[in-house]
Design a protein that fits this description.
This protein has 237 residues and is of the alpha/beta class. 33% of the residues lie in helices and 29% in strands. It has a 5-stranded mixed barrel with strand order 5-8-7-6-9. Helix 3 links the parallel strand 6 and strand 7. The longest helix is centred in the last third of the chain and has 20 residues. Hypoxanthine binds next to strand 5, strand 8 and strand 9.
């Protein structure tokens, strides 16, 4: 049954979902990756595309930007459409000196300044982490792509794009935080709440402390495609 934000009928969304932030990117990924694809929802310009990847049904749907937007779509997919696994495929700002622009980052944990870590159990700040099975499958898939550098570690999921807090950034980098983005903690919290599986994989589109590393759009595309390939392979396990 359609929900307030998704117009697909039951069964029109696959149990495996790739979730970029940008709806235009979702369409591109669907067209590049899926066979027999069709558009099954288009509320607010957030298209949901369903087809098959290597013979397995898979959907691609955007999250929009930030935890609240992602939380709406992910909750409705898990709760009302029987989705079992969502992998976010997004971009991030690299924080760690170890991470170069273009590298791929698999978020083994999500630190956050969002209330989402505190809402599910009173008095507890939850550890927000991915599904081990998806993480393991992503690691396996990444080994088959030798041309891309893949990092595994915590990321910082911030509620603010335009709020410079140097002490926060410095403290997080000292603790080995790899990058900053704005959705992973929301996805991991939603998966916990709905008893489902999630993973976040990112490509570094810029570096917080090194703007000389900015990538050309062609370079951006190559590493983005590697990340999407790792995510699709991890979804089919
Ligand atoms: N901050 C938050 N999210 C991001 C950034 C950033 O610098 N770059 C890409 N996504």
């Amino acid at each position: 049954m359609p929900t307030p934000h998704i117009s697909a009928e039951n069964g029109e969304i696959a149990p495996l979902v790739l979730m970029p932030g940008d709806p235009k990117r979702a369409e591109r990924i669907a067209r590049d990756l899926l066979d027999d694809l069709r558009l099954v929802s288009d509320v607010r310009g957030i298209g949901a595309w369903t087809g098959t990847y290597a013979g397995t049904p898979m959907s691609v749907m955007a999250s929009g930007m930030g935890i609240p937007s992602l939380g709406i779509y992910a909750t409705e997919l898990y709760r009302f459409y029987g989705v079992k696994k969502i992998i976010r495929v997004g971009t991030c700002g690299a924080m760690s000196p170890r991470v170069k622009v273009r590298d791929v980052i698999v978020a083994t944990a999500a630190h956050t300044n969002s209330s989402v870590a505190q809402l599910l159990v009173p008095g507890v700040s939850l550890s927000l982490a991915p599904s081990y099975d998806l993480l393991h499958a992503a690691g396996h898939a990444a080994k088959k792509l030798p041309d891309v550098t893949v990092h595994y570690g915590p990321v910082y999921c911030s509620d603010h794009f335009y709020l410079a807090r140097p002490a926060v950034t410095e403290g997080l980098v000292k603790l080995g935080t790899l990058a900053v983005e704005m959705e992973s903690a929301g996805l991991y919290a939603t998966a916990l709440q709905e008893g489902a599986e999630a993973l976040t994989i990112l490509t570094a589109s810029d570096h917080l402390f090194d703007s000389s590393q900015d990538m050309t759009s062609a370079e951006r595309e190559t590493s983005y495609q590697a990340m999407v390939r790792i995510a699709a392979q991890a979804l089919i396990g």
